[in-house]
Amino acid sequence: MTIAKRLGLASVALISLGASAAYYATIMAMRGYQTQARRLDYLVLALVAALASLLLVLFWRSVHQTVKSISQQLDRMVKEHQYGLVMIEEGHELAQITGPLNRFLTLVRGDINHLQEESRELQIQSRIADAEKKNAEAIIISITDAVVVTNRFDELILANQGAEDLLGFKLEHSLRKNIDHIMQDGTLVRLIRETRSGGRSFTRKVVEHTIDQKAQPKIFNVTLSCVMTAQGEVAGVVAVLHDVTREKEIAQMKTDFVSNVSHELRTPLSSIKAYVEMLVDGEAQDEKTRREFYDTIASEAERLSRLIDNILNISRIESGVVRVVREPVNLTEVVKHVLDVLAPQAKAKNIRLADRLVPVTHQVEADKDMIYQAVLNLASNALKYTPDGGTVSVSTDIDERRGLAVFEVTDTGVGISPADLPHIFDKFYRVQSHTKMAKGTGLGLTLVKHIIETVHGGKLAVTSEAGRGSTFSFELPVL
Ligand code: ADP
Fold first, then answer.
1. Can you give the pLDDT at residue 203?
2. Taking the model in full, what pTM does it have?
3. CB of 416 closer than 6 angstroms to any ligand 1 atom
């Protein structure tokens, strides 16, 4: 029941009481047995009671209307969420209530304004944080290294495509799941967990770790960082996996290269040194022996110089500092020149040097000296690795349809086994069983490959069968 209703009921009760009193007083005043004076008393009493009832009615009306107005104003404030002041007639008795009520409402309004401001501020901050989070996520996602972010419960909260591919999970199915259940790589799981439990003492470390990717072992530098909150608590771990396989290979190749070069240089140098010492000690007593010693020294010096030339040429091409002089070159002419140079060698080994060369009509745009070097290396290898009495056939051809000039050299030599074939273009690679057959550096074919493919954009190919012979060929675009 509302206050207004209660007040109404109370007033009706009082008015009824006043009216009854007035009625009783009037009756009493009218009774005939009363004295004059008594009758007057009752009349006054009836008048007073009636007046009191009237005043009460007026008072009740005023209170009722004011309470109703207060109630309506409060209802409106609640409905519209607008907390103002309760307004009533000035000097009204209920002002004793509305005064404190308004003070209370003013306080509430102040608090609400304050809270609204704070809420607006929080909304702005939350939007900024959201945008920053999205930025950070975009950065992580665009990194090519694999990135994994976990929280303090070792649950996955972010990962990029690199991590998905490498570690074999899908972020959308793995969010908020423990890394134990997502990652098969136990070592990585252990590293992340150790970093998290190490907390402050373990803020960042780099560990080398091998992971199989598409059945190939890949070496990664795993950088593990512990993410700390402003209060110094562990919030999670960020693991970045950087593939260093190629860098490691290059470092290993450099080391191998240096050790191979030193080894290869030492062999002819030791030989030269030994023969010179023998000459100095007078060990070559007759002219014939001395001549033999001189010849050996000359051929070893020649080998040394060839070796150094090859190394320099290869490293110049590899580092891109080689000077290439391009001019129209006739392949047949170059091959003829090489055959002239090699003819004595073929004769010495009783090898038939057959040629089938196209007429001098087509030209290729190339560095003449380099092409000469490539043809010489391939043809002299054919002679070197063909036993006495064999045949080496050399040809040039034009593939009109594809616009290519083709050089080919086929021998009836020792051939190359399928196991060795993929490696013969590697630096310093020599087929073990061939080393007694001919001297070499293992650099000739590397240089040919670089000259034909790296410098001239052509194609070098080989087919071979152990014990039966080999065919090396290359093609270059004609002008
Ligand atoms: P090398 O100085 O040893 O000849 P190359 O780089 O020219 O170095 O050749 C690498 C290896 O490939 C050689 O050691 C040899 O074992 C093999 N090889 C090259 N050409 C032939 C060929 N025509 N027949 C058989 N083996 C060959």
1. 66
2. 0.53
3. yes
